[in-house]
Structure of Peptidoglycan bridge formation glycyltransferase FemA/FemB family protein:
Amino acid sequence: MSPSSLTVRTITPEQHLEFVRTRRSASFLQTPAWGRVKSEWRSESIGWHDGAGDLVGVGLVLYRQLPKVRRYLAYLPEGPVIDWDDADLAAWLRPMVAHLKGKGAFGVRMGPPVVTRRWTAAQVKEGIASDEVQRLGQVAPEERSVAGARVVSTLHELGWKPQAVEGGFAAGQPQYNFVIPLRHDDGSARTEDEVLKGMNQLWRRNIKKADKAGVEVTKGSADDLKLFHDLYVHTAERDGFTPRPLGYFRTMVEALSAEEPDRITLWLARHEGDLVASTIAIRVGGHAWYSYGASSTDKREVRGSNAVQWAMVRDALAAGADVYDLRGITDTLDADDSHVGLIQFKVGTGGEAVEYAGEWDLPINRAIYTAFDLYMSRR
């Protein structure tokens, strides 16, 4: 295939989904169903076709209209799903930009699913313990990705701008995630015992404590979403974040379940009939995510959160997943920062911190984009 022969055009959600099914890893934010979840954005499935007309890449585009103007920010969260290892990345991005410009986009925002650096759990733990370290980037990584560095360099050369925006038009997908690899370097699956032994002593003790206390973890159904949401609202009040409404989760479960029966799973951890923790897990191919979680302030001593996480990890292993993704962490390693508690919880799983290339913008109409950028900076 000659990359220069690539063309981009609108495809059907069915074509989009069929291509995603051929991939071992694609973000759930790049599935057709996610467009139905984000109903406040107009969505479009686009496809890359080679010279023979074969579909070789896909993307979910979310369009957000500017107030009073028929111009849009075109956003591809954690996407698109293309060959990011191709040295001629421009041949993939240029026809995409041309297509989006034709749809009225004044700018494009995307989040390449490309890892740039990795740190072991031990390295992150040492960074938190050190008075000299404030940020993850100050710790020498276990691995620097040559491919990731090439993507970042190419994007700069092509005029894309790295973003550090949260909220607003940007959905603010995390640049740093914490993941548990579920396969060895040779591709063979890790066993439950191997994953458990990789966790720190506190995690292993808490999993045993939950089991001994009689915590029962089960998969729920859409009928149980109200139970999850009540506990989630309680968690939001305790931890100081704004909860999403119940309707959002109903739409999310309905849309993702319609796409694949095992795409999204609600988990419930109970102790003597009381709901002590509840989570939502998502899986696309070999990539499994912990998406949302809630826990009770009461009965914290029975360690329901550890129990439900371990159940999700075991389920991902049983499904043959390659990685269990605990999603975002901040890059702060300052022991006095309020976010460090979440990092320490995830680090205890024995996985690794990964840095992605982050989100990038390409201004198409510079005047409108500059005004948009100014508007966003004042929010």
